């Protein structure tokens, strides 16, 4: 089950009749091994998926709509390839369901089976759309820095920290994250927030490091985990959390969160670009 075998980047027939077999799981293990992560994960966390193009028919044939949010544990065996996720959600369009609860339980069952872990699912229907949160990342913007760079592939040597001074606690963020789909090469645009306690991280080096993903090919989850591992190894923070929010593509946005200490799960507030 590799990206090359998935529906990604290939012509596909869109079925509007429910079909759980459309979900295409991809094991996390190979990408993690490539960055030195073995069985013992150096983090925990979740992948938050927001699906804005979900519709089905009620028992009388009237279309229903909702925004679905999926919370996928970081220790699940698999991720789900995004185009297969879109095809799967599209298969609900002409399928009758007794209620939104039945839809939610169906989504939970199928996505949990594909990921190999218990996935939580929330449905927001039109009456609650206006209550969904929008906000921007808290913290100090790295994008304020005026700097030169010419490195556009991930380079952890850009990361520096001051080890001979007292540790600090900081929340930093950048809206300049870009990576590319590992199969189609299409750009994935995102923002990333980094909270840490430990030796002071050089801000310019950290921003150059984030920018260095610009020509990198990798799934969203893998990019966040690589950032986490590189910062942990190079800067040796005592506590570290990395939270990336990517703009939506195909009606889906993907938002990986990784941490090595006990933090509340992010509130899933949507950034303006999402």
From TrEMBL:
Cited InterPro entries: GTP-CH-I_C/QueF, NADPH_dep_7-cyano-7-deazaG_red, QueF, QueF_N, QueF_type2
Lineage top rank: taxon: Bacteria
Pfam families: QueF, QueF_N
SUPFAM superfamilies referenced in this protein's UniProt entry, alphabetically: Tetrahydrobiopterin biosynthesis enzymes-like
Physiological role: Catalyzes the NADPH-dependent reduction of 7-cyano-7-deazaguanine (preQ0) to 7-aminomethyl-7-deazaguanine (preQ1).
Example of a GO biological process term: tRNA queuosine(34) biosynthetic process
Subunit structure and binding partners: Homodimer.
Primary location: cytoplasm
Name of the encoding gene: queF
Protein name: NADPH-dependent 7-cyano-7-deazaguanine reductase
UniProt subcellular location: Cytoplasm
Swiss-Prot/TrEMBL keywords: Cytoplasm, NADP, Oxidoreductase, Queuosine biosynthesis
Binding, NADPH: 82-83, 249-250
EC assignment: 1.7.1.13
Pathway: tRNA modification; tRNA-queuosine biosynthesis
Entry's Gene Ontology cellular component terms: cytoplasm
Coiled coil (UniProt feature): none
Family membership noted in the UniProt record: Belongs to the GTP cyclohydrolase I family. QueF type 2 subfamily.
Binding-site positions, substrate: 80-82, 220-221
Keyword match NADP: yes
Keyword NADP part of the UniProt annotation: yes
Catalytic activity: 7-aminomethyl-7-carbaguanine + 2 NADP(+) = 7-cyano-7-carbaguanine + 2 NADPH + 3 H(+)
Annotated organism of origin: Paraburkholderia caballeronis
Molecular function terms from GO: preQ1 synthase activity
Active-site feature positions: 181 (thioimide intermediate), 188 (proton donor)
């Amino acid at each position: 089950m590799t990206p090359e075998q998935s529906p990604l980047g290939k012509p596909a027939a869109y079925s509007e009749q429910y079909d759980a077999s459309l979900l295409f799981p991809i094991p996390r293990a190979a990408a993690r091994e490539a960055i030195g992560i073995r069985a013992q994960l150096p983090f925990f966390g979740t992948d938050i998926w927001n699906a804005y193009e979900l519709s089905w028919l009620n028992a009388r044939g009237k279309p229903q709509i909702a925004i679905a949010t999926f919370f996928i544990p970081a220790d699940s065996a698999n991720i789900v390839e995004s185009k297969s996720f879109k095809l799967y959600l599209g298969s609900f369009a002409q399928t009758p369901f007794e209620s939104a609860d039945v839809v939610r339980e169906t989504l939970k069952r199928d996505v949990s089976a594909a990921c190999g872990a218990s996935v939580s699912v929330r449905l927001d229907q039109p009456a609650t759309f206006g209550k969904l949160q929008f906000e921007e990342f808290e913290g100090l913007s790295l994008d304020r820095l005026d700097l030169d760079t010419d490195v556009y592939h991930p380079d952890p040597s850009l990361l520096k920290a001051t080890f001979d001074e007292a540790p600090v606690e900081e929340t930093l963020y950048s809206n300049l994250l870009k990576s590319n789909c590992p199969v189609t090469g299409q750009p994935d645009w995102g923002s990333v927030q980094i909270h840490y306690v430990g030796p002071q991280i050089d801000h310019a080096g950290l921003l150059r490091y984030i920018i260095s993903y610009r020509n990198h090919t990798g799934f969203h989850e893998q990019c966040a985990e690589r950032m986490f591992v590189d910062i942990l190894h190079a800067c040796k923070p005592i506590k570290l959390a990395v939270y990336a929010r990517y703009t939506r593509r195909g009606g889906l946005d993907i938002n990986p969160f990784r941490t090595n200490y006990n933090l509340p799960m992010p509130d899933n507030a949507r950034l303006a670009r999402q």
